[in-house]
Amino acid sequence: MANEPSTRRYRYWYAKLLRFYPKPYRERFGEGMEQTFNDLLCECATEGKGLFEGAAWMFAETFAGIIKENVMMRKKNLIRIAVATGLLLLIPLVAMQFTHEVVWTPADFIVAGILLFGAGLTYELISWNAHTTAYRLAAGVAVASALMLVWVNLAVGIIGSEHNPANLMYVGVLAIGLIGASIARLQPNGMSHALFAMAIAQAIVPLVALIIWGSGVTSDEASVGLLNVFAANALFVLLFAGSAFLFRRANTLNT
User: Which of 13, 174, 195, 203 sits a CA distance of 20 to 30 A from 48?
Assistant: First the structure.
């Protein structure tokens, strides 16, 4: 059958997609959903309909179901994250009433809220199936470090001021972490490699900035000096490396 390779490929990826359902739901309905998907592919092949269109529709419908079920399963934790985000945002709001040194615009509160809630949600997604304290601690350090990296760059910048284009290279550090976590499927051994890669990338950024931009990387209005730039980077390198060691520890405990 000419469509057999495509059919096998769609079945393989659909089975992978079903893993993102909460475990109790997956154990109860996963087999039936795979059978329904297989029947749909057979029907499309028999009637000469497009396999891609049928598979894409089922993938989209299943993805929406995954989001719904995960939200329902984690509703309490999502509420806690939202409450914690609101409480943290009260700190600058109250500070603004007592000092003129703290000046936040509505846009600042919106961005901060998105970052805080997003960090909490990311930690929840990573640590949901964690079986060891080491894994949860590693995930917490990784998420908190990434949040700090974004926050500092938006607020004042690590290399020069927040307007210095050299700081955009830190987006690459975060991208390495996201890609590494996806490839590792959140398994502790793979996550350890991803965090080590982030630590190495973090250490390289100021060196690349110095080579490309020279001394100008710290010569703008909010200059903090080369020493402080490397010190700040060293802190993030240690945090990412520490998270990597904790993930490695979690992998040892799992084996």
Answer: 13
